[in-house]
Amino acid sequence: MEISRDVLIRPLITEKTTSLMQDNKYTFIVPLTANKVEIRQAVEQIFKVKVLAVNTIRVMGKNKRMGKTQGKRPDYKKAIVKLAPGERIEFFEGV
């Protein structure tokens, strides 16, 4: 089983995460069950970079209404990955 492709769902690109890229930090959406070790291994394996630190944040989904019907957005987990000095992920460049 190729573990790295299952751990990183997609990159998260917002104004805040774009400013974090100046500090060599990149943000990904990961499964709720993923831990820091799995995230580190996945990033190092896919992008061939050296990871210094991984921080994770669990984001609770918001309750939303559309008229009478009520729903909830799904919960998700963010991973902020700090790379070694001089390392870059080309996937994010030019965004």
From TrEMBL:
GO terms for biological process: translation. It holds the Pfam family Ribosomal_L23. Part of the 50S ribosomal subunit. Contacts protein L29, and trigger factor when it is bound to the ribosome. The keyword Ribonucleoprotein applies. Keywords: Ribonucleoprotein, Ribosomal protein, RNA-binding, rRNA-binding. This is Large ribosomal subunit protein uL23. It comes from Methylomusa anaerophila. One of the early assembly proteins it binds 23S rRNA. One of the proteins that surrounds the polypeptide exit tunnel on the outside of the ribosome. Forms the main docking site for trigger factor binding to the ribosome. GO terms for molecular function: rRNA binding; structural constituent of ribosome. The lineage of its organism: Bacteria, Bacillati, Bacillota, Negativicutes, Selenomonadales.
